[in-house]
Amino acid sequence: MVKIHVYLPDDRRQVGRLQLVDDNDEIITGPFPVLGKADNQAAAANGNPSRDPLRKNGDTPLGTYRVSEVRPTDNEHYPNHSYGPYGFLPLIAVSGQALHAAQNGRAGLGIHAGDPGTGGKLRPTYGCLRLFNDNQKQLVAALKNEGLPCECIVESTSKPSSITFLLESEVYSVGEDDGDVPSEPAEAVAAIAALEAFSFIRSPFSIDAPLKKNNSRLTPQLFDRYLDSRERTLLSGLGVYAIDAQSKYGINATYIVAHAIVETGWGTSRICIEKNNLFGWGAFDGTPYQSSKGFPSREICVDFVMGKINSLYLDPAGRYYRGAVLGNKDHGMNVYYASDPNWGRTIAAVAERIERFLDSQT
After folding, report:
1. Who has greater pLDDT, 271 or 169?
2. Sign of the C-alpha dihedral, residues 160, 165, 171, 176?
């Protein structure tokens, strides 16, 4: 069963991170910036000025929840501006603070998105966890692909983090629906600042790991063993193509494999199955299947796409070169390759898992 894992800082004025993982703690999608802070005004108005998570209108309670459904939004119960167009995930308390809060009468908690505030900012809720719209879309799509129900674990992290951007203001407008009580909270952490500050435990394979002249220890046999260990074999055989591309273009094979895993959902995407397209090449956000390029074979896809990535993204003379690393929206491939600002981070996280597996085998 997959799990939604949420890490919230002790200071809820800071953003945390949310990621969907499998039974092996392999990241399926994410991590994404998430806010678990309550609306100050609503909390005070309901006798909870400290935003105690165990009481109504407090911050998101820690603990374990169950997620069993995706409720549609953009209707009278879940207006689009407050919840976003990609669904509401109800959180049913199981244990920890979550259960104590439910016993105290807290209800209506969930994971949702919603329009950003002025300047593209995440907004506090009334106990719910809020993501950016695009991230909620990715999370819901991954859950539908993996299947529900699932567990959601919300825990606190006091580890040092680069997430240091606090709320800039707390000015609220009243009368619109959001979270679990009627009212619309205002701005929180600036989206761009949150994304750039957002980090998880850095690994040897990070968003700034060089993708050229940094050969992987991956072998075709080890890659197939890695897939077998996670009971995911739809990409079996990819390792040899990645090693060939590494030899031909000098591009790190671990990155190539991680890129394919992320873009195809471990080989399950329609584009992969029907078009042998392992990297979303040509897939525009509005028409991903129709616009994506088809290939006669996966081997040809790897050679073609890595050749293009090498000349366009990783060569200093390339049209889209911003550094031969995965990067983010400031630098690296992520500036132009993908609209998702967490694209580079997600691939780096998968590459880290592969590297850890390689370490365990050598």
Report:
1. 271
2. negative
Based on the fold, state whether residues 30 and 61 are members of the same structural domain.
Answer: yes
Say if residue 354 is exposed, middle or buried (CB neighbours under 10 Å; 0-12, 13-18, 19+).
buried
Answer yes or no: do 141 and 257 share one domain: no
Indicate whether 163 and 271 sit together in one domain. no
Averaged pLDDT of the chain: 83
302 exposure class (CB count in 10 Å sphere: 0-12, 13-18, 19+): buried
231 belongs to a structural domain: yes
Which run of H or E residues covers position 184?
Answer: strand 181-184
pLDDT at 78 over 60: yes
CB 354 within 8 A of CB 270: no
Q: How far does the chain reach from its first CA to its final CA, in angstroms? A: 29
Residues 190 and 247 both lie in one domain: no
Is residue 205 in a domain? no
The tokens 């031909």 sit on which residue? 248
Same domain? For 66 and 170 the reply is yes
Residue 167's nearest CA partner among 56, 6, 277, 38 is 38
CA distances from 144 to 32, 139, 141 (A): 18, 9, 5
Per-residue pLDDT tens for 280-337? 898 886 788 888 999 999 999 999 999 999 999 999 999 999 999 999 998 999 999 9
Q: Across the chain, how many H-helices and E-strands are there?
A: 12, 11
Residue 212 lies in a domain: no
- Decide: 211 and 255 in contact? Cβ < 8 Å: yes
Tokens of 90: 């109800």
Count of domains for the chain = 2
The answer to whether position 203 is within a domain reads: no
- Closest of 31, 35, 33, 10 to residue 128, by C-alpha: 35
- Helix runs in 11-108, H state only: 40-45, 80-83, 97-103
What range does the domain containing 228 cover?
220-361
- Residues 171 and 310 both lie in one domain: no
Question: What type of residue sits at position 123?
Answer: R
Task: Specify whether 45 is located in the same domain as 80.
Answer: yes
Among 40, 337, 359, smallest CA distance to 218 is for 359
